[in-house]
């Protein structure tokens, strides 16, 4: 019996036919295995396909051996980069971008799991557009381990720790009565644990800035450049990831965030960039209890709008 395939529609022919999934990893063998297992269950109609690019940032926990076990189940390439002072998520993602052959790039982190229609939802959100940056929902998981045996047979929420929180950005959208597309500070909410964009847009923007080291803001700064260059941002609640339980921000992470904010503000002398300083009390583990992060995010947006509407001084002659 000949298998019958429905020919692609005109709209499908305009969409990216291949997706490149970029995953940086550093000593995250167990969670990366869960992530890769979830990717083996993706449902994409022909002519669409995907490749997975894992960039190992100097792991010594057996990540390479584990990734090798997936080469028969995924179109997968693995790059190992020795750990150096220049190592970091920005550099790892640039290495992955240079390896990509797809016409849509989806960025993931190694500590999350995705449902079977995750890539299809990213693809659908872009449609035939070439100027979109799509960010997807991030659901936070409670403490516990992934059930790898169950995930090997198919995606199930029962194989994951309990979902304890939805995406923190959604209450911000609700409080502002708008979506990400209409926010002056939309670029701040590019979280590359779940985002997609055309590779030519990434290349035109210069890719990730590898001078960002440690934790925080390398993705927001990329978002800033993409938006400045005319890319439109869109939020997709359906393109969801399930994120491993996170420990609170540590003192060292906070120091890295502050250093990265200084680099960000020096590189882009836009007052709206400096306004991110407002988040410091909510992030600093040594600070007394401050207002909720959502309330700070709403103030941040209103302050950025005020800057945009303020009259500009007349030029001197």
Q: Can you describe this structure?
A:
- The protein has a single domain (12-249), classed as Spore Coat Polysaccharide Biosynthesis Protein SpsA, Chain A (Alpha-Beta Complex), CATH 3.90.550.
- It is 37% helix and 18% strand.
- The chain has 13 helices and 9 strands.
- The protein has helices at residues 10-14, 29-39, 63-68, 89-99, 118-126, 148-153, 169-176, 199-205, 218-228, 251-267, 271-274, 280-283, 293-309, and strands spanning 18-25, 49-56, 76-80, 104-108, 112-114, 132-141, 163-165, 194-197, 232-243.
- Strands 1, 2, 3, 4, 5, 6, 7, 8 and 9 form a 9-stranded mixed sheet that branches.
- Helix 7 (169-176) packs across helix 13.
- The model is unreliable at 1-13 and 312-317 (pLDDT under 50).
Name the helix and strand elements from N-terminus to C-terminus, one letter apiece: HEHEHEHEEHEHEHEHHEHHHH
Bin the strand percentage: 15-25%
CATH topology: Spore Coat Polysaccharide Biosynthesis Protein SpsA, Chain A
Structural class: alpha/beta
**How many structural domains?**
1
Number of strands: 9
Number of H/I helices: 13
> Biggest β-sheet: count, sense, barrel?
9 strands, mixed
User: Which bin fits the share of residues in helices?
Assistant: 25-40%
List the helices and strands and how they pair.
Elements: H1 10-14, E1 18-25, H2 29-39, E2 49-56, H3 63-68, E3 76-80, H4 89-99, E4 104-108, E5 112-114, H5 118-126, E6 132-141, H6 148-153, E7 163-165, H7 169-176, E8 194-197, H8 199-205, H9 218-228, E9 232-243, H10 251-267, H11 271-274, H12 280-283, H13 293-309
Parallel strand pairs: 1-2, 1-4, 2-3, 6-9
Antiparallel strand pairs: 4-8, 5-9, 6-7, 6-8
Helix pairs in contact: 7-13
């Amino acid at each position: 019996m000949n298998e019958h395939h429905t020919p692609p529609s005109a709209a499908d022919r305009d969409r990216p036919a291949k997706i490149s999934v970029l995953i940086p990893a550093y000593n995250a063998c167990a969670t990366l295995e869960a992530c890769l297992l979830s990717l083996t269950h993706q449902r994409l109609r022909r002519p669409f396909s995907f490749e997975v690019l894992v960039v190992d940032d100097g792991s010594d926990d057996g990540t390479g051996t584990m990734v090798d076990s997936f080469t028969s189940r995924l179109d997968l390439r693995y790059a190992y980069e020795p750990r150096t002072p220049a190592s970091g998520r920005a550099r790892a993602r640039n290495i992955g971008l240079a390896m990509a052959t797809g016409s849509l790039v989806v960025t993931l982190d190694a500590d999350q799991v995705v449902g079977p229609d995750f890539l299809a939802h990213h693809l659908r959100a872009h449609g035939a557009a070439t100027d979109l940056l799509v960010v997807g929902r991030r659901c936070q998981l409670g403490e516990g381990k992934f059930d790898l045996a169950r995930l090997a047979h198919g995606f199930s929420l029962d194989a994951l720790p309990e979902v304890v929180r939805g995406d923190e950005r959604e209450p911000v959208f609700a409080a502002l009565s708008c979506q990400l597309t209409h926010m002056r500070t939309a670029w701040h909410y590019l979280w590359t644990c779940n985002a997609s964009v055309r590779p030519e847009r990434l290349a035109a923007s210069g890719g990730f800035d590898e001078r960002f080291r440690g934790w925080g803001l390398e993705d927001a700064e990329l978002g800033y450049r993409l938006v400045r260059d005319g890319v439109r941002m869109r939020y997709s609640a359906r393109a969801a990831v399930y994120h491993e339980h996170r420990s609170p921000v540590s003192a060292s992470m906070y120091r890295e965030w502050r250093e990265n904010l200084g680099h960000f503000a020096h590189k882009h002398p836009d007052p709206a960039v400096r306004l991110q300083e407002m988040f410091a009390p909510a992030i600093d583990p040594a600070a007394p209890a401050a207002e909720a992060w959502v309330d700070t995010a709403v103030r941040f947006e209103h302050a950025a709008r005020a800057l945009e509407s303020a009259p500009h001084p007349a030029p001197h002659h």
